[in-house]
From TrEMBL:
Pfam families: Trp_repressor (PF01371). GO terms for molecular function: DNA-binding transcription factor activity; sequence-specific DNA binding. InterPro entries: Trp_repress (IPR000831), Trp_repressor/repl_initiator (IPR010921), TrpR-like_sf (IPR038116), YecD_YerC (IPR013368). This is TrpR-like protein, YerC/YecD.
Length: 100
């Protein structure tokens, strides 16, 4: 992660997320932590990443998710040139290493 972003508070946030035990705890924590709009934005970006990984075209992604082409482009840039965060999650989801 960009060292300018990784301060003590960010470290605590990530440690808190890692401490969650199951899907229900995760949902409760994020519901308390985030606004509905923030949660919808994050879930939309993940869906965009999953669709890009499946080689969907931007127009289909925008139609299905409601994401702007700017959001789709940013997620695509992260998938191709980012910190591998989306890739790690997508690969684990494909392998079934998540609680659904």
């Amino acid at each position: 992660m960009n060292q300018k972003l990784m301060d003590e508070n960010m470290h605590k946030l990530f440690q808190a997320i890692l401490s969650l035990k199951d899907l229900q705890e995760c949902a409760h924590f994020f519901e308390d932590l985030c606004t509905v709009s923030e949660l919808k934005s994050m879930s939309q970006r993940l869906e965009v990443a999953l669709m890009l990984d499946k080689k969907y075209v931007y127009t289909d992604i925008a139609a299905k998710t409601g994401a702007s082409t700017a959001t789709i482009s940013r997620v695509n840039r992260c998938l191709n040139y980012g910190s591998e965060g989306y890739r790690a999650v997508i690969d684990r989801m494909k392998a079934g290493k998540h609680d659904a």
